[in-house]
């Protein structure tokens, strides 16, 4: 489904502080599979997630999504692909403070221009999937850690993407919440979502969820293992 | 120079806008030179971001240009009593040689900015920026006009000396002085009305043909340009006298006054919208064969045709109202 | 099309909510913005209203007034000039006028004495304006005393009081007979205050005035339009000065706006990063910034213009009056009639909204082009 070919990313190119974050990274992901990007911080996991998730463009190399080359698409089209195909869960959830849980979930769909009533209905239904219907009108800063996490996941799902991308999802969670997170991921996988998780937390990379583990070190693939 | 607040306002904003557009055009030249879509280098990413800046600047410019067009006329009208003999905007505009050129350029620049934005919109529908070079080269061609407008306007304002005897609109359009304006004014009114409707019907036919069979894009665009001229002439020669109910009062500016219920604003606005969108159809015609636009461009053109015909219909209806309900008869 | 509208509506909703979330910052911006609009609007409304006022007063003024001037000073004009001037081509009538001011030291008020052309009061009686009636507590039938030019006391019976509401112009008016006027003012028979001419064709004003000057070099013809033009230039000039001053305030405001818009708080920067990360595109953020500008500008424009209107037409322009009160010698009781037009509003728009918008374009664009993966890092 997604193929990366010789991806390289250089920041501050041509300047003294040039920094190579990725070099010659290639891999293939299959639909409905779960892939874990594993590696210490600074190994290029996040940069790679950004490139695979159409958030940033590689300096060299090509990305194919469903056989379509998306590397040289202008931002407008890349964004359109991104919001329809990818849902993101960030390290610190990145919910927008001062807004309700419901509004936070609706935000990714605003630029799509859906009717407000219809969008609200879908957002409430999505919140309901995570037992959050009662908290819909609560401001996000009043939510507990677990609730905020589930709002962030609901937000990633609002545009019904086929791929869910999570960057260090468990980094700031205690054990109980980490396990709750993995349980939700299992549910999503069962629903047919493709998952890409970047983590250096054994709860994630040793999980039976993983179909494939790609290990990154210093911006290059250090090992790739498929699990049956 | 007259230290009138509205003059200051027009001048400040003209200079600001011209500076912004020239600044944007400079970015545009950088884009033309270094554009390389295949590259993922940071230079290319920066250039892609700059395209957003340029189109934002132009959109704002278009909006301000529209207001400035009307404010310019309004101001010329409101300061006319400073000049002996001037009775409306016409008098003020003839105080020196820069008045009419400034007004004409304001109109042209509104059209140019509108057309550029249509091209820009079309380009953004293509996934490979198919028109990027064309559009920024065009911008570089157009930007000097915007700067020129600010320059002419400055000269016009600086040379506004009160108490110069100027002509009022009655004098300008009187049969004694023969020039293009009087030719237009003294065109026989009913045939002129016929030409206006005739040209409107032709536009409708051309638009209809385009909507049904997708042909005649150039024809529609060109026809809109011609029709704009015809329409302006018709406003001066037929619509105004009917509206003022005075057979010899032909002023194209007085219809903007409150005495005539601001009739001129919807009239000119609908005409301008129809002209820009209509000419835009012709402008886009040569790019229909571009691979990445093949799908979206015809749809965009059809939408423009619909908007143009709609606005044109509003304009023609507005033109007809005074003729129907006027106490005056030019038959 | 409907999708585009819904998209804009969503973005607008989001923007308004975001502005309300940052009450302090938005409030400060709107307050400064409103202040600039208010100052400008006050200045422009004031100038415009003065002009309208002068126009109204002068509407009924004679087309040409002829005064006599000796060594540059005003002097009464011989009545026989009227006959000769009346014969100049284009002049349909020339009439001597008798009028003047009377300073009443007791009530410290200035009255306007006028000998009406028709229906002169009988000698020994006067008709007074409502203002004087109140001031002197005079009713029809009462006697009012004045001091003549020679110090002699003169006394008149009040025949009638002019009805109130006939305008402030008539409040200080005294209508008097010609005989009493001459006794009070000391202007001898055969002389008049000035001459008023009726000239029907506006195009002949200048020619007629020129001929009068040639025939009677000691006269000064004043064309009505010239008075209007002079007032106009004066009011506009004053308006211009205020506009320049406000312009400087405006400039400071632009710098302020630039600073506010460039100096995105860490919170806002992160917010935009999140929006872009979850699927907003650069043009969506630009649309958001556009609506932000519209919302702020619209609010400030509306507030500033309304406050300016109240200030000028209700509050007596108390902020400017000391600076702009040069006209007060012309009309002691000048109350402004509300008069606003599209041109004024357009000028304010262009003096404030355009600079504001232009100064926010680049910062908005910078904010909008934050990398979507910025929140990942």
UniProtKB/TrEMBL annotation, chain A:
<dbReference type="GO" id="GO:0005886">
    <property type="term" value="C:plasma membrane"/>
</dbReference>
<dbReference type="GO" id="GO:0016887">
    <property type="term" value="F:ATP hydrolysis activity"/>
</dbReference>
<dbReference type="InterPro" id="IPR003439">
    <property type="entry name" value="ABC_transporter-like_ATP-bd"/>
</dbReference>
<keyword id="KW-0547">Nucleotide-binding</keyword>
<dbReference type="InterPro" id="IPR017911">
    <property type="entry name" value="MacB-like_ATP-bd"/>
</dbReference>
<feature type="domain" description="ABC transporter">
    <location>
        <begin position="2"/>
        <end position="228"/>
    </location>
</feature>
<dbReference type="InterPro" id="IPR003593">
    <property type="entry name" value="AAA+_ATPase"/>
</dbReference>
<dbReference type="GO" id="GO:0005524">
    <property type="term" value="F:ATP binding"/>
</dbReference>
<protein>
    <submittedName>
        <fullName>ABC transporter ATP-binding protein</fullName>
    </submittedName>
</protein>
<dbReference type="InterPro" id="IPR027417">
    <property type="entry name" value="P-loop_NTPase"/>
</dbReference>
<dbReference type="GO" id="GO:0022857">
    <property type="term" value="F:transmembrane transporter activity"/>
</dbReference>
<keyword id="KW-0067">ATP-binding</keyword>
<keyword id="KW-0813">Transport</keyword>
<dbReference type="Pfam" id="PF00005">
    <property type="entry name" value="ABC_tran"/>
</dbReference>
<dbReference type="InterPro" id="IPR015854">
    <property type="entry name" value="ABC_transpr_LolD-like"/>
</dbReference>
TrEMBL record, chain B:
<feature type="transmembrane region" description="Helical">
    <location>
        <begin position="79"/>
        <end position="98"/>
    </location>
</feature>
<feature type="transmembrane region" description="Helical">
    <location>
        <begin position="104"/>
        <end position="122"/>
    </location>
</feature>
<keyword id="KW-0812">Transmembrane</keyword>
<protein>
    <submittedName>
        <fullName>Uncharacterized protein</fullName>
    </submittedName>
</protein>
<feature type="transmembrane region" description="Helical">
    <location>
        <begin position="12"/>
        <end position="32"/>
    </location>
</feature>
<feature type="transmembrane region" description="Helical">
    <location>
        <begin position="304"/>
        <end position="328"/>
    </location>
</feature>
<feature type="transmembrane region" description="Helical">
    <location>
        <begin position="218"/>
        <end position="243"/>
    </location>
</feature>
<keyword id="KW-0472">Membrane</keyword>
<keyword id="KW-1133">Transmembrane helix</keyword>
<feature type="transmembrane region" description="Helical">
    <location>
        <begin position="134"/>
        <end position="157"/>
    </location>
</feature>
<feature type="transmembrane region" description="Helical">
    <location>
        <begin position="263"/>
        <end position="284"/>
    </location>
</feature>
<feature type="transmembrane region" description="Helical">
    <location>
        <begin position="52"/>
        <end position="72"/>
    </location>
</feature>
<feature type="transmembrane region" description="Helical">
    <location>
        <begin position="190"/>
        <end position="211"/>
    </location>
</feature>
TrEMBL record, chain C:
<feature type="transmembrane region" description="Helical">
    <location>
        <begin position="336"/>
        <end position="358"/>
    </location>
</feature>
<dbReference type="InterPro" id="IPR051447">
    <property type="entry name" value="Lipoprotein-release_system"/>
</dbReference>
<feature type="transmembrane region" description="Helical">
    <location>
        <begin position="239"/>
        <end position="258"/>
    </location>
</feature>
<feature type="transmembrane region" description="Helical">
    <location>
        <begin position="298"/>
        <end position="324"/>
    </location>
</feature>
<feature type="domain" description="ABC3 transporter permease C-terminal">
    <location>
        <begin position="266"/>
        <end position="372"/>
    </location>
</feature>
<protein>
    <submittedName>
        <fullName>FtsX-like permease family protein</fullName>
    </submittedName>
</protein>
<keyword id="KW-0812">Transmembrane</keyword>
<keyword id="KW-0472">Membrane</keyword>
<dbReference type="InterPro" id="IPR003838">
    <property type="entry name" value="ABC3_permease_C"/>
</dbReference>
<feature type="transmembrane region" description="Helical">
    <location>
        <begin position="28"/>
        <end position="50"/>
    </location>
</feature>
<keyword id="KW-1003">Cell membrane</keyword>
<dbReference type="GO" id="GO:0098797">
    <property type="term" value="C:plasma membrane protein complex"/>
</dbReference>
<comment type="similarity">
    <text>Belongs to the ABC-4 integral membrane protein family. LolC/E subfamily.</text>
</comment>
<keyword id="KW-1133">Transmembrane helix</keyword>
<dbReference type="GO" id="GO:0044874">
    <property type="term" value="P:lipoprotein localization to outer membrane"/>
</dbReference>
């Amino acid at each position: 489904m997604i193929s990366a070919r010789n991806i390289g990313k250089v920041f501050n190119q041509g300047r003294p502080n040039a920094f190579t974050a990725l070099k010659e990274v290639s891999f293939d992901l299959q639909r409905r599979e779960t892939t874990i990007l594993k590696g210490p911080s600074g190994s290029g996991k996040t940069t790679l997630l950004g490139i695979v998730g159409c958030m940033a463009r590689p300096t060299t190399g090509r990305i194919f999504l469903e056989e379509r080359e998306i590397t040289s698409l202008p931002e407008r089209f890349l964004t359109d692909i991104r919001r329809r195909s990818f849902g993101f869960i960030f390290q610190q959830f990145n919910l927008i403070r001062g807004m309700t849980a419901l509004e936070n979930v609706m935000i990714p769909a605003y630029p799509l221009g859906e009717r407000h009533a219809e969008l609200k209905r879908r957002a409430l239904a999505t919140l309901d999937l995570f037992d959050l219907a009662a908290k819909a009108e609560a401001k996000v800063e009043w939510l507990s850690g677990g609730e905020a996490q589930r709002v962030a996941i609901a937000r990633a799902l609002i545009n019904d993407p086929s791929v869910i991308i999570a960057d260090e999802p468990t980094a700031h969670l205690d054990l109980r919440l980490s396990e709750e997170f993995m349980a939700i991921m299992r549910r999503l996988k069962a629903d047919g979502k493709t998952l890409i998780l970047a983590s250096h937390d054994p709860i994630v990379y040793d999980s039976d969820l993983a179909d494939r583990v790609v290990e990154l070190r210093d911006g290059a693939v250090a090992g790739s293992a498929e699990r049956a | 120079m007259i230290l009138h607040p509205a003059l200051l306002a027009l001048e400040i904003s003209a200079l600001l806008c011209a500076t912004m557009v020239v600044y944007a055009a400079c970015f545009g030249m950088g884009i033309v030179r270094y554009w390389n879509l295949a590259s993922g280098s940071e230079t290319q990413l920066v250039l892609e971001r700059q395209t957003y800046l340029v189109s934002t600047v132009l959109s704002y410019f278009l909006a301000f240009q529209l207001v400035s067009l009307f404010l310019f006329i309004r101001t010329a009208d409101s300061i006319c009593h400073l000049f002996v003999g001037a009775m409306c905007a016409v008098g003020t505009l003839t105080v020196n040689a820069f008045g009419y050129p400034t007004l004409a350029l304001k109109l042209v620049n509104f059209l140019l900015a509108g057309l550029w934005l249509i091209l820009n919109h079309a380009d953004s529908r293509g996934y490979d920026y198919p028109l990027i070079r064309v559009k920024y080269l065009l911008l570089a061609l157009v930007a000097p006009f915007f700067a020129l407008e600010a320059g002419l306007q400055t000269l016009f304002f600086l040379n506004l000396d009160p108490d110069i005897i100027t002509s009022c609109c009655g004098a300008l359009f009187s049969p004694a002085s023969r020039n293009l304006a009087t030719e237009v004014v003294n065109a026989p009114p009913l045939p002129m009305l016929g030409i206006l409707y005739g040209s409107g019907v032709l536009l409708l036919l051309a638009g209809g043909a385009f909507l049904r069979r997708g042909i005649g894009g150039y024809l529609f665009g060109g026809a809109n340009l011609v029709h704009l001229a015809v329409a302006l002439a018709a406003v001066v020669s037929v619509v105004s006298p009917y509206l003022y109910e005075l057979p010899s009062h032909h002023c194209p500016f007085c219809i903007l006054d409150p005495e005539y219920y601001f009739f001129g604003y919807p009239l000119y606005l609908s005409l301008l919208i129809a002209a820009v969108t209509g000419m835009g159809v012709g402008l886009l015609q040569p790019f229909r064969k571009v691979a990445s636009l093949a799908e979206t461009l015809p749809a965009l053109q059809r939408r423009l045709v619909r908007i143009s015909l709609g606005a044109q219909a509003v304009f023609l209806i507005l033109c007809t109202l005074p003729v129907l309900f006027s106490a005056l008869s030019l038959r | 099309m409907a999708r585009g509208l819904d998209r804009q509506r969503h973005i607008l909703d989001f923007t308004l909510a975001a502005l309300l979330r940052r009450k302090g910052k938005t409030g400060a911006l709107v307050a400064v913005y409103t202040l600039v609009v208010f100052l400008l609007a006050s200045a422009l409304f004031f100038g415009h209203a003065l002009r309208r006022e002068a126009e109204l007063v002068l509407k009924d003024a004679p087309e040409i007034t002829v005064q006599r001037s000796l060594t540059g000073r005003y002097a009464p004009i011989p009545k026989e000039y009227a006959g000769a001037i009346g014969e100049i081509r284009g002049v349909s009538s020339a009439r001597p006028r008798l009028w003047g001011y009377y300073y009443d030291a007791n009530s410290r008020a200035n009255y306007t004495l006028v000998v009406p052309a028709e229906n002169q009061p009988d000698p020994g009686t006067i008709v007074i304006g409502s203002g004087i009636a109140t001031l002197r507590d005079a009713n029809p039938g009462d006697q009012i005393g004045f001091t003549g030019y020679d110090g002699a006391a003169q006394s008149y019976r009040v025949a009638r009081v002019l009805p109130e509401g006939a305008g402030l112009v008539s409040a200080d008016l005294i209508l008097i007979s010609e005989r009493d006027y001459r006794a009070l003012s000391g202007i001898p028979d055969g002389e008049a205050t000035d001459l008023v001419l009726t000239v029907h064709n506006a195009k002949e004003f200048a020619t007629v005035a020129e001929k009068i000057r040639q025939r009677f070099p000691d006269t000064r013809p004043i064309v009505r339009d010239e008075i209007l033009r002079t007032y106009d230039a004066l009011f506009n000039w004053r308006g211009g000065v205020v506009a320049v001053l406000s312009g400087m305030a405006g400039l400071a405001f632009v710098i302020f706006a630039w600073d506010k818009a460039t100096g995105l708080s860490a919170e806002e920067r992160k917010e935009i990063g999140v929006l872009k990360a979850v699927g907003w595109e650069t043009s969506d953020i630009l649309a958001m910034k556009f609506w932000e500008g519209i919302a702020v500008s619209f609010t400030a424009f509306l507030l500033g213009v309304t406050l300016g209107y109240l200030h000028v037409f209700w509050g007596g322009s108390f902020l400017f009056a000391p600076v702009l009160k040069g006209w007060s010698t012309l009309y002691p009781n000048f109350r402004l009639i509300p008069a606003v037009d599209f041109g004024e509003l357009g000028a304010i728009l262009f003096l404030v909204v355009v600079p504001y918008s232009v100064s926010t374009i680049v910062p908005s664009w910078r904010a909008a082009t934050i990398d979507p993966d910025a929140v990942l890092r």
